[in-house]
Amino acid sequence: MLLAEVAATSDAVSATRSRLAKRAAIADLLRRATASDAAAADRAATTEIVVAYIAGALRQRRTGLGWAALRDLPPPATDATLTVRDVDAAFAEIASLEGPGSAQARSTAATALFGAATEREQVFLRGLVAGELRQGALDSVVVDAVGEAAGVPADAVRRAVMMRGATGPVASAVLLADDPAATLATFTLQVGRPVRPMLAQSAPDIATAFEKLGSGDPAERCVDVKLDGIRIQVHRLGDEVRVVTRSLDDITERVPEIVEVVRSLPSDRLVLDGEALAVGPDGVPRPFQETAARSATREAAPEVELVAQLRLSPFFFDVLHAGGRDLIDAPLRERLAVLDEVAASHTVRRLLTADPDAAAEFFAGALREGQEGVVVKSLDAPYAAGRRGAGWIKVKPRQTLDLVVLAVERGSGRRQGWLSNIHLGARDPEGGFVMLGKTFKGMTDEMLEWQTARFTELATDDDGWVVTVRPEQVVEIAFDGLQRSTRYPGGLALRFARVLRYRDDKSAAEADTIEAVQALSGL
Ligand SMILES: Nc1ncnc2c1ncn2[C@@H]1O[C@H](COP(=O)(O)OP(=O)(O)OP(=O)(O)O)[C@@H](O)[C@H]1O
């Protein structure tokens, strides 16, 4: 398949706001990707690349191509001859270049690739490399489009994607299958293969959380302490243990102490979900904030740095598989019974109650202990892999949002020479970001130093005062409320926004949406 076809579809998708029209355009592209008479293996590889590129994902790899390399492009070719396989092979080669002289070699390879692209294709490739095509909502439209093209329900595709942890392999399998429905059914939970974790919705207080789980219903709920650590999913097959983070990065090598605990558990086939934290001498888990500040100058993601420094303990709050039994679809009540059997002394503290006052008391106790809050859970709900399921509602005392840095202003006075005041945006599910305010508060000197380097790397424009950056860095912001504002395009502004920490465990596509902000504002 020609790159030109993917670029044209990408244009068609961004030209319309209609989800149905986007879906139809992508479904058509996928049908064409699988219809050629090439060998099945070629069609499968082509389909996977098309799925990734149309969603703006340049696989999981970094190309090592900086913004500067993309500024002075060679003259474009006149004919569209590049195939998606050519392009992917070129990116693979560029990414593999290392060591002395590699910058020059990368630049030469990039010039060759861009020189073979038409003007339109150059724009598309540059957007792909710069991460500008990445739109959070597109992942889910792609899943819908796979369903449409293969003639199977989108929900079944979504579930398979969660189980497989990736869209491309599911798309190629189902689109090339003689029996798509049967093929989809083969994507089940497999011990050893990470699934996307369940996420929580939020509520401002316990009473609202209880209501959200069914108003006027006197049924018991599970109230878990919300620990502020590193999300971990643990897979065990005999002595083989694998530990992955929220974004499914494998950290097994870095957490031998967790591997050891998991090996000591009574079941030898397990998939557990939980949080990893350092424990104080008093046996109480220490929140992330306390230790995160120390790693503000890190090169790598903060959690990676942290796991290298601290001895972590696992605190499990869910079980997806135990001893040959899949539990994803079982109600939480049943999963907890199993969890207590298989991970007894390593579970998160919880209270089962139908009484919101008792839950509020438990919440206050968790805060006194220094924890982040609670997660109120329906005891009847299944594990909603990869979704912000309706069965989990988090409650925190402090309002926070995960926003994306859009630009940063040069500091003055004591902050001369640093990039200081950051512009904050919420994600627009239809694409792009909506600015909600700025802040220069809450940053330590280490953070200023780190962010100056980081935003220099992400810079796309600089008017001498404001440096515009690629919208990739997620930052956790605390604030005192939201007010109406005519200054910003969303009509809302944050009051007293301050930085809590930079989050490298979340991509911009996972940042909070403008809709979530509107819901929190109550305006
Ligand atoms: N008992 C618990 N049950 C579920 N999640 C928990 C629990 N304790 C801590 N957590 C953490 O809370 C998160 C749930 O909130 P959410 O899905 O919104 O993720 P998040 O955006 O990372 O949230 P936050 O920034 O509030 O931690 C989980 O990802 C997990 O890391």
Automatic annotation (TrEMBL):
Keyword Cell cycle: yes
Gene Ontology MF annotations: DNA ligase (ATP) activity
Keywords linked to the UniProt accession: ATP-binding, Cell cycle, Cell division, DNA damage, DNA recombination, DNA repair, DNA replication, Ligase, Magnesium, Metal-binding, Nucleotide-binding
Active-site residue numbers: K226 (n6-amp-lysine intermediate)
EC number, as in UniProt: 6.5.1.1
Catalytic activity: ATP + (deoxyribonucleotide)n-3'-hydroxyl + 5'-phospho-(deoxyribonucleotide)m = (deoxyribonucleotide)n+m + AMP + diphosphate
Keyword Ligase in annotation: yes
Chain positions recorded as ATP binding sites: D224, R231, R246, E275, F317, R388, K394
Annotated PANTHER family: DNA LIGASE 1/3 FAMILY MEMBER, DNA LIGASE-RELATED
Biological role stated in the UniProt entry: DNA ligase that seals nicks in double-stranded DNA during DNA replication, DNA recombination and DNA repair.
Family: Belongs to the ATP-dependent DNA ligase family.
Protein name: Probable DNA ligase
Gene it is expressed from: lig
